[in-house]
Amino acid sequence: MNLTLVAVHELLTRLGPGDGHLYLPRDVDPRELIDRLAAMHGAPRTLVLDGFTAPTVDDSAGAALLAPFGDRAVLIRAWAYGGQWVGAGSARDEEGDERAVLAVAVRKLPDPLVVASPEDAEDAEDVDWVDRLIRITGWTQPARRPDVDWAEPESRLGTALPGDYKRMVETFGEGAFDGWLSLHQEPWTHLREDGLLMWAGTEHEDSYCWRTDGDDPDRWSVVVRSFDDEDTGFRCGTAEFVCRMLVDPHHPYTMAHYFDTHWFMNYQESD
């Protein structure tokens, strides 16, 4: 079986949006299957390695993927993708032979999460938007970059950086929200002459920036510069902007039209 990205996508479509699994032909290399999925969904988390299930595996980490295999799973790695868990690796079939497997399972968050308008909050500035972002994405992994030394990039840039942005980088590390909005690990400066620092971007070449007005970076507003150099401003900070982008269907850059459940696609190997 030729494991092209198209072939893997067709297999996932065959499994459908609910729970399902497939034992693949005996000539399929499980690690090649994992590599193909990693190219689609980023770095996986390991659920089973050498027949042993990771002690941290629970429903929030994709445990439902293991149900079809019982104690026959040998290697299972998992990805979050919207409202679905995707798993791949190897398991023993009914004859005891180790074969490549592909599985999907419904991914649920504990409760539906919405982002109220600032007018509905008693004091919007008291909202912990990074914590809310963690809940919206169902993030359960340890902080990916907890020991970032911000003194060096801030010295090089000549300015302190917003605290919520730094917490986002420390928490999520390198990757993209909903596999779309890539979080830069330090700001880009090529728009500095326009008073903008870029903290995220997309493959459509939109630039997600701050307008660096004033001495307090925690009060910088977000500006999105489109590929055709049109600017759209938002009177909010970084984490609040991402929360609203993910779940507010009326947001100009909303992802809520595409996904009901959101995630962070990790580019770094997970624990």
Please describe what this structure looks like.
The chain has helices at 5-15, 30-41, 129-137, 151-157, 163-172, 238-247; strands spanning 20-23, 45-49, 52-53, 73-81, 84-92, 98-106, 175-177, 181-188, 196-201, 207-211, 221-225, 231-234, 264-266. The radius of gyration is 21 Å and the shape is elongated. It has six helices and 13 strands.
Helix-residue proportion: 10-25%
Average pLDDT confidence is 92
Described by the principal axes of the CA atoms, the overall outline is elongated
User: Order of strands across the widest beta sheet?
Assistant: 12-11-10-9-8-7-13
Element order: H for helix, E for strand = HEHEEEEEHHHEEEEEEHE
Distance between the termini: 31 Å
- Biggest sheet features: 7 strands, antiparallel
Radius of gyration: 21 Å
What is the beta-strand fraction? 25-35%
**Continuous helix count:** 6
- Outline the low-pLDDT stretches: none
Number of strands: 13
Helix/strand class: alpha+beta
